[in-house]
């Protein structure tokens, strides 16, 4: 019973976060316009690339699959809540110490709030970007099966991104400014995470390493199982995501415990 009450509490937090994000119509419209612009630019870039190389497939993807791949990665990237900045602010303002006296876990509170916000943003982003991509290059074959695999891969992808951002935010206990660390993390997701260029287009020697880093399992992995649905690829992705979640979760837990000791030592 106690566990159920705890679960309901965090589900309520996620629901409130989701509803609050639906209230900002201007923000939603702005993201839709930005997504449409980005996808149009990338379509022209990849059209030129395919045309210059004379290839029908690059990284195992057709031009249509490539743009749908970017549709998913952009929807994931644009849906990311500002977890690191919020944790950083809580540390610097002392709000985290106030949260610790409340009858809930600070980490679980932040996770519930982030997931509630993220699923709303991702859904809106996906619908808007999918419409734009459909108008530009048409439908994606096997899209229905891809959506099922994507839905299975997304929860762990969002969890991995939350853990990475949460850890960056906790670094505020030791760093004067965490913006540099956040920049490194975000660029990792963008560049070596395959957000703009599929992992299959990187040198073969580094592809296995990139796939096991958490960045690719946040963006590239889910996008790939959507455009090229395959149960084996999904299973391999879930294994990598779980492994990444365990490692990142352990890192976050150790850092959080060390941070709490600093709070208690300083009378927080």
What does this structure look like?
The protein has one domain. 77% of the residues lie in helices and 0% in strands. The model has no long low-confidence stretch (mean pLDDT 86). By secondary structure, the chain is an all-alpha fold. α2 packs across α6 (106-137). The two termini are 32 Å apart. It is globular and about 60 Å long.
Topology:
Layout: H1 2-22, H2 25-53, H3 63-78, H4 83-93, H5 95-100, H6 106-137, H7 143-170, H8 179-192, H9 207-212, H10 220-227, H11 231-265
Dominant shape: globular
Give the total of beta strands.
Answer: 0
Described by strand count, sense and barrel closure, the largest sheet is: none
| Secondary-structure element string | HHHHHHHHHHH
The N- to C-terminal Cα distance equals 32 Å
Helix percentage range: over 70%
Global Rg? 20 Å
Main structural class = mainly alpha
Show unreliable segments. Answer: none
Query: How many helices?
Result: 11
* Total count of domains: 1
- Averaged pLDDT, please? 86
Beta strand % = under 5%
């Amino acid at each position: 019973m106690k566990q159920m009450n705890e679960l309901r509490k965090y589900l309520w937090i996620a629901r409130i976060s989701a509803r609050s994000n639906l209230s900002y119509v201007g923000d939603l419209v702005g993201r839709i316009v930005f997504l449409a612009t980005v996808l149009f630019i990338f379509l022209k870039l990849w059209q030129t690339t395919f045309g210059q190389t004379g290839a029908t497939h690059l990284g195992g993807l057709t031009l249509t699959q490539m743009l749908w791949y970017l549709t998913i990665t952009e929807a994931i990237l644009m849906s990311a809540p500002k977890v690191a900045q919020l944790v950083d602010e809580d540390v610097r303002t002392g709000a985290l110490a106030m949260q610790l006296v409340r009858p809930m876990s600070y980490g679980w509170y932040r996770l519930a709030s982030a997931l509630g916000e993220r699923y709303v943003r991702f859904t809106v982003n996906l619908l808007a970007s999918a419409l734009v991509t459909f108008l530009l290059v048409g439908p994606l074959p096997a899209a229905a099966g891809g959506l099922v695999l994507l839905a299975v891969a997304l929860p762990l992808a969002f969890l991995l991104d939350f853990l990475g951002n949460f850890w960056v935010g906790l670094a505020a206990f030791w760093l004067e400014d965490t913006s540099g660390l956040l920049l490194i993390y975000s660029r990792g997701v963008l560049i070596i995470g395959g957000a703009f260029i599929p992992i299959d287009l990187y040198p073969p020697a580094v592809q296995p390493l990139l796939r096991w880093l958490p960045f690719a399992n946040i963006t590239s992995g889910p996008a790939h199982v959507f455009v090229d649905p395959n149960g084996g690829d999904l299973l391999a992705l879930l294994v990598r995501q779980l492994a990444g979640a365990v490692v990142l979760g352990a890192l976050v837990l150790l850092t959080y415990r060390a941070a709490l000791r600093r709070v208690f030592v300083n009378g927080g």
